[in-house]
From TrEMBL:
This is SCO3374 family protein. Residues 1-12 have a biased composition (Polar residues). The lineage of its organism: Bacteria, Bacillati, Actinomycetota, Actinomycetes, Kitasatosporales. Residues 1-20, 132-162 are annotated as: Disordered. It comes from the Bacteria.
């Protein structure tokens, strides 16, 4: 690793958006949207039809680092912390600080990953992702949803993530592996470039990206050999 750290070009400490008033009529009969917008203060894109999923707007409260689930699962073994992580089918999404999408290309170059074709991307302003179903019992009446938590006592949650939908789970639905905590501002838990060399508060985006990129590269080599 050489050179100087890419400059921070975006404001990663934006003031959180205000929560909407608690008005049931504003959300109709959608308890999931009500949970995201009222409990977390996260902007959503309402479902256009009864069959389409609720989506979360990116670039306002957070961006998403999108990687293959196999690489993400391996990376989580080395990345402790409270930052939320979601999974949908064979992709895993790490929530990172808003503005990280613009920083990622320069950061990968600085970490000497820039010349490799890694299956890794960041999604930010203007993007959306499917909203994972809230963890039970945050919203009642949704049924059981795989949470990624281990069944055995004393196991690390990040070491026992679901590899495929459990019986009864909705195929293609996003699920939380590390769900956000209502009442806590998400920004304080997200990996950010400004945390490099800090006092141990917010996670370090450099370490997260380097760890995820390493496992994406190992997955690429393994698939090439196969």
């Amino acid at each position: 690793m050489s050179g100087s750290l890419p400059s921070l070009t975006t404001d990663l400490t934006a003031v959180p958006l205000p929560r909407r008033p608690l008005d049931p009529a504003a959300f109709g009969d959608d308890p999931v949207r009500r949970w995201y917008e009222n409990e977390l203060g996260w902007p959503t894109v309402p479902a256009s039809t009864a069959e389409s999923p609720l989506r979360l707007r990116l670039g306002l409260r957070f961006d998403v680092l999108d990687v293959p689930a196999e690489a993400g699962r391996a990376a989580l073994r080395h990345l402790a912390g409270p930052s939320p992580v979601a999974m949908r089918n064979d992709r895993m999404g790490f929530l990172v600080a808003a503005g990280s999408t613009e920083e990622l290309p320069g950061l990968l170059d600085w970490l000497e990953w820039g010349t490799l074709a890694l299956d890794l991307r960041a999604i930010g302003t203007g993007g959306v992702v499917q909203a994972p179903r809230p963890p039970a019992p945050a919203v009642s009446g949704l049924g059981e949803v795989p949470s990624g938590r281990p069944s055995g006592p004393g196991e690390d949650e990040s070491l026992a993530l679901p590899g495929r939908p459990e019986p009864g789970a909705l195929q293609g639905a996003a699920v939380w592996l590390r769900p956000p905590e209502p009442g806590c501002e998400v920004e304080a838990s997200l990996p950010t470039l400004s945390a490099l060399g800090g006092d141990g508060g917010a996670p370090d985006l450099v370490r997260v990206v380097n760890t995820v990129a390493t496992h994406c590269h190992r997955l690429r080599l393994r698939r090439t050999r196969q």
